[in-house]
């Protein structure tokens, strides 16, 4: 009887190890410096790091979001070019349309609005948000599958836009920028949910 129990335990252990090995084999990871989506994220972060801040929340929010939106558009263009999933391609098209329109709006705002406020705390907080966003992106598991990497990285990208927009609502004064911040929060929270649902349906693969 004891020998039978030992045999059963041995079979269970072998089965567990085999299952773990199978799951480990299914997890694919691509180095970040070889990943196209991550390359776009790093280029965007580098541009924001060199942005000359004015200490005016409305101006700095507009300048930051122009760079941030362009990063999303570049990622979406890569998804359309190299992705294969119809849902992700559709979301990419929607992101390009909405964020290009907002780039046009912030560019017009910056041409017509002279920085006049002095709120260094806003600049410090918005740069801190972007630093955290960059670190979070570098912690993501990406695998070289364009559809997967687009979805997983856009979640973090959108989250940082939402956080920056909430800061604009607290510190900004210009109605047009505060309206844009509200629209960004509403639209991108919905898109975050869509990306998350898509990833969960695929088992995050």
From TrEMBL:
Signal peptide feature range: 1-18
- Cross-referenced Pfam families: DUF305 (PF03713)
Q: Which UniProt keywords apply?
A: Signal
Q: Does the keyword Ribosomal protein apply?
A: no
Q: Which residues cross the membrane?
A: none
Does the record carry Signal as a key word?
Answer: yes
The chain positions of domain DUF305 read 58-199
Q: Which PANTHER family match?
A: SLL0788 PROTEIN
Record-given protein name: DUF305 domain-containing protein
> What organism is listed for this UniProt entry?
Mucilaginibacter robiniae
